[in-house]
Amino acid sequence: MDKRTFLKSVFLGAAGVFASGFTTKLKAARKKKKWNGEFLLPELPYAYDALEPYIDARTMELHYSKHHAAYTEKLNAAVKEAGLTGKTALELLAEVSKYPLAIRNNGGGYLNHKLFWKMLAPATGKQPSKELLDALNKHFGSLDAFKEKFNTAAKTVFGSGWAWLVADGDILKITATPNQDSPVMDLVAEKGFPLLCIDIWEHAYYLKYQNRRAEYIDAYWNVVNWDFVSQRYVSNKTQKTT
């Protein structure tokens, strides 16, 4: 076999492999089942002990496998009872004032935690992207000033709830919600696209920090997933301009 024939055979072979792989993926995509409307507990993106020493493994295990799992189970039951199967969590919460309280409480608990896990990551010392940092500087003066204002919002939540950084158009705002309410709900005073949040329910910190909520909030900054938060900022900004 001469060189020209050899190269031709290699090229055709590679093309055949590519075509075969593409066909397989296409068939798999066609066979993919349509979502049946059941909400599933999302996979935790790290081990229970990955956020130590800032958030302990036992707290993470109970928070995820008991509390978040319970919200997921009860949301499915509430949605089925209300005849709302097929709506996404975001669709439900966007008009939650129309629905039973069980959907507000459990839908919020389900989606808030789903976001919260992604907004955390093992400590790496990373900081916000330049684009997000510029926005934080613009709206709050500096990253430290933003953290101070966010901490104040979290520390002053009465009882259980959440503190949030949200985008409202081009404006960044800090807000707080009671219980499992969320800025995506139609009935909250301050609405927006969630960029960052912290869970202030006692089950999020009590095993390690007891009544020292402020200490938990300060520790939280060590495990913020700034890559994810920065991606959400860019994603929301892109959606607003396209």
Spell out the CATH superfamily of the largest domain: Iron/manganese superoxide dismutase, C-terminal domain
Strand coverage percent: 5-15%
Number of helices: 9
- Classification by helices and strands: mainly alpha
Number of domains: 2
Instruction: Report the principal-axis shape.
Output: globular
CATH class of the largest domain: Alpha Beta
Order of SSEs: HHHHHHEEEHHH
Q: List low-pLDDT spans.
A: 1-31
CATH topology label of the largest domain? minor pseudopilin epsh fold
In CATH, the architecture of the largest domain is 3-Layer(bab) Sandwich
C-alpha termini separation = 55 Å
The largest sheet has its strands arranged as 2-1-3
Compute the CA-based radius of gyration. Answer: 22 Å
What brief labels describe this structure?
globular, disordered N terminus, mainly alpha, 9 helices, single chain, Helix Hairpins, 242 residues, 2 domains, 54% helix, 3 strands, minor pseudopilin epsh fold, three-stranded antiparallel beta sheet
Write the layout of secondary structure elements.
Elements: H1 3-31, H2 57-82, H3 89-94, H4 101-118, H5 130-140, H6 143-155, E1 161-168, E2 171-178, E3 193-199, H7 206-209, H8 213-220, H9 226-241
Antiparallel strand pairs: 1-2, 1-3
Helix pairs in contact: 2-4, 5-6
How would you sum up this structure, described in words?
The chain has two domains: 57-118, Fe,Mn superoxide dismutase (SOD) domain (Helix Hairpins); 130-241, minor pseudopilin epsh fold (3-Layer(bab) Sandwich), CATH 3.55.40. The model is unreliable at 1-31 (pLDDT under 50). The longest helix is centred in the N-terminal third of the chain and has 29 residues, at 3-31. Helix 2 packs antiparallel against helix 4 and helix 5 crosses helix 6. It is mainly alpha-helical. It has nine helices and three strands. A three-stranded antiparallel beta sheet has the order 2-1-3, with helices on both faces. The protein has helices at 3-31, 57-82, 89-94, 101-118, 130-140, 143-155, 206-209, 213-220, 226-241, and strands spanning 161-168, 171-178, 193-199. Strand 1 and strand 2 form a beta hairpin.
